């Protein structure tokens, strides 16, 4: 079951400048940074709020590290802005399978590693009314009963 907004992914050209904007303008602080080689991004997670299932909601600021990455391709076409939304679930495997059965393309056969040791997969934006949609099971939620 999808129980919360885990994060909103925002594509940017300069991670430090974008972090600085969110920090100066709204007072949001960096909770975590990492490089995800597989996804081809440097990223900063800004924690916005806790959620009633014990998780959190974040902004995920994404700067591409390779020209052939999904975010680089998207930036070249659209410029900076909202790239995807991510829903949180305790069971990314089960939810992805159920959504695939409804005829929505799930991009990965098995969930991959996302921010902060989460497990993630994506739904094709063309099957989701134009919204690239990510499903996330956070590290904390892995192993919880669902
Ligand atoms: N939101 C909405 N539509 C999108 C999109 C996005 N983020 N990215 C691509 N599209 C649309 C394109 O506009 C294009 O539409 P048209 O055919 O109408 O022009 C179509 O989808 C195909 O796009 P493309 O530019 O040719 O790109 P690809 O097909 O090569 O890749 C996708 C699209 C979704 C398969 C790829 O971006 C992907 O695998 N995404 C998942 C991984 C990812 O985004 N990783 C970065 C984030 C990591 C993280 O969150 O941790
Ligand atoms: Co994401």
UniProtKB/TrEMBL annotation:
Pfam name, any one: Glyoxalase_4
InterPro entries reported in the protein's UniProt record: Glyas_Bleomycin-R_OHBP_Dase, MeMalonyl-CoA_epimerase, MMCE/EMCE_epimerase, VOC_core
Keywords, in A-Z order: Isomerase, Metal-binding
GO BP, sorted A to Z: L-methylmalonyl-CoA metabolic process
Keyword flag DNA-binding: no
E.C. code: 5.1.99.1
Domain VOC: 4-138
A molecular-function term among this protein's GO annotations: metal ion binding
Keyword Isomerase included in the entry's annotation: yes
Enzyme class of the recorded protein, top EC level: isomerase
Protein family according to the UniProt entry: Belongs to the methylmalonyl-CoA epimerase family.
PANTHER family given in the database record: METHYLMALONYL-COA EPIMERASE, METHYLMALONYL-COA EPIMERASE, MITOCHONDRIAL
Name of the featured protein: Methylmalonyl-CoA epimerase
């Amino acid at each position: 079951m999808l129980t919360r907004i885990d994060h909103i992914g925002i594509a940017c050209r300069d991670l430090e400048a974008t972090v600085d904007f969110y920090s100066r303008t709204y007072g949001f602080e960096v909770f975590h940074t990492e490089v995800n080689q597989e996804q081809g991004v440097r990223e900063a997670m800004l924690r916005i709020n806790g959620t009633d299932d014990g998780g959190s909601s974040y902004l995920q600021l994404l700067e591409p590290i390779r020209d052939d990455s999904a975010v680089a391709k998207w930036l070249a076409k659209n410029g900076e802005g909202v790239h995807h939304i991510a829903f949180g679930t305790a069971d990314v495997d089960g939810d992805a399978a159920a959504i695939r059965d409804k005829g929505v393309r799930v991009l990965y056969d098995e969930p991959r590693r996302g921010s902060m040791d989460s497990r993630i997969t994506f739904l094709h934006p063309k099957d989701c009314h134009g919204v690239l949609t990510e499903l996330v099971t956070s590290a904390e939620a892995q192993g919880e009963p669902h």
